[in-house]
Structures are given as structure tokens and as C-alpha cells.
Design goal:
The protein has 231 residues and is of the alpha+beta class. 42% of the residues lie in helices and 23% in strands. The strands form three sheets. Strands 1-8-3-6 form a four-stranded antiparallel sheet. It has a four-stranded antiparallel sheet with strand order 2-7-4-5.
């Protein structure tokens, strides 16, 4: 057991789902959390697995992917420090809707669904706050999907890059050049576009001096310049 340590309480306080909880409530959640360590490229859980645990990333990065029967896969989301995944396990035991795998060595804390549900039964006020937070997250997701449906490929790719820059800066990247560890395919999948369309637009950004591309990575030189392509 982590035992409600202050660092775990602080980590939980960074998670949007838990952000409305008082420090005493966060300490209760921390008491049922256990540390987990994953090697680079390790599968945390697979699509279709039983859903019994949620995870909060302490360090490292992971991604959620969905696989098609023909072997193709699409990246749905990436997770870094302070991000939560598998959170619906706190409320039900439905099958996993995606596979989550680490991109590098990753430390996390795990919360068993059964432990969390027991905590919610003992402290209904925590349940009310969590449901409200999940509702806000669902509304934000619906708004993002609606906005993306009206955006061009260029706008979606620029939005994804801006979000990746914001995440990198939240992890300590400076205000200057920002290194993004992602392939063209990763960016395309996150933007919901074909790799070819994303690649063409990334070349436009490179010619404009906004980014520089490398193998499996890119550097954003002018994050503010991305905003010109978002509408």
C-alpha cells in the first residue's frame, strides 16, 4: 500500500477527475492505491480484458490503441504524468474498450475498482464529486468531437500539435523549442486523418519554420504559429 503518502495525494490532486476532492478525500483514495511499474512497450491491459483497475501515471508515457480485425490500429489517446486511464473501472466491471501500452518505462499508481467502490459507499460525498467531474469530462469530450467534425485536416493536426506542446510544457518543457516524441502516424491518428494528409500538412508547417521533423519525433519552434491554422 502507498498508505496515503503526501506525494500520492499531490499526484491525485493533479488528476481532473479527482480535482474537486478535498485533501482529506484524496488521502482516502491514496490509502487504497498501490504502486505499479511497467517496462517500455509493456501492455498494461488489452481490449476485451476484464475491467478491474484504473491507473494514474506518475512518470513515463503510455497510449491507448484500438485494433481492427485486419491488423490496423489507431491511437486514441496518450497519457503522461498526472493522467488517468481505465477510470470507468471505478464504477463498473465492463470489458476494456481499448488496449493501453507504455511508450517508455512508466511508474503509476493503481486503484482497484472494488476498493474504490467500497470507498464510495462509505463516503457518498466523494461519489457525487466524482460523478460531477466525469460529467464535465464527458461534456468536454463531446465538445471536442463536435468541433473536430467541422475542422479541416490542417486544423485538426495543428490542434493536436498544440495539445502535445501544452502537455510537454506541463511536464517541464520550456517556452522555446518543444520536442514532441511522436511519429507522423501518431499525429495523424490523434487528429483522425490519414497519414498522407497529415504528412502533407506537416511539410507545410516545416516549410513555414514552425516545426522541424525527425525520425519518430518533431520539434515545435513556434507554438503560437500553430494557432493560425486552428479554426
Amino acid at each position: 500500500m502507498v498508505g496515503g503518502g503526501g506525494d500520492t495525494v499531490a499526484l491525485l490532486g493533479r488528476v481532473p477527475v479527482f480535482s474537486a476532492l478535498a485533501e482529506s478525500d484524496l488521502a482516502r483514495v491514496a490509502e487504497v492505491a498501490v504502486p505499479r511499474n511497467f517496462a517500455p512497450g509493456e501492455v498494461v491491459f488489452r481490449e476485451g480484458d476484464d475491467s478491474d483497475t484504473c491507473y494514474v501515471v506518475r512518470s513515463g508515457h503510455a497510449r491507448a490503441v484500438r485494433e481492427h480485425s485486419d491488423g490496423r490500429s489507431i491511437t486514441l489517446a496518450t497519457f503522461g504524468p498526472g493522467d488517468i486511464f481505465g477510470e470507468l473501472a471505478m464504477f463498473d466491471d465492463e470489458k476494456r474498450s481499448a488496449t493501453v501500452e507504455t511508450l517508455e518505462g512508466t511508474d503509476a499508481i493503481a486503484i482497484l475498482g472494488a476498493d474504490m467502490r467500497r470507498l464510495l459507499r462509505e463516503h457518498p460525498d466523494i461519489a457525487v464529486k466524482l460523478i460531477a467531474a466525469l460529467g464535465r469530462r464527458l461534456r468536454d469530450t463531446n465538445e471536442r468531437l463536435a468541433r473536430q467534425s467541422f475542422q479541416t485536416v490542417q486544423s485538426r493536426v495543428a490542434s493536436v500539435l498544440a495539445q502535445l506542446v501544452e502537455a510537454a510544457r506541463a511536464e517541464g518543457a520550456g517556452e522555446g523549442d518543444v520536442l514532441i516524441t511522436a511519429t507522423q502516424a501518431d499525429v495523424a491518428q490523434l487528429a483522425g486523418s490519414s497519414r498522407e494528409s497529415a504528412s502533407r500538412f506537416l511539410a507545410v508547417l516545416e516549410r513555414a519554420g514552425i516545426i522541424t521533423q525527425g525520425r519518430g519525433k518533431l520539434v515545435v519552434h513556434d507554438a503560437a504559429g500553430l494557432a493560425r491554422y486552428v479554426y
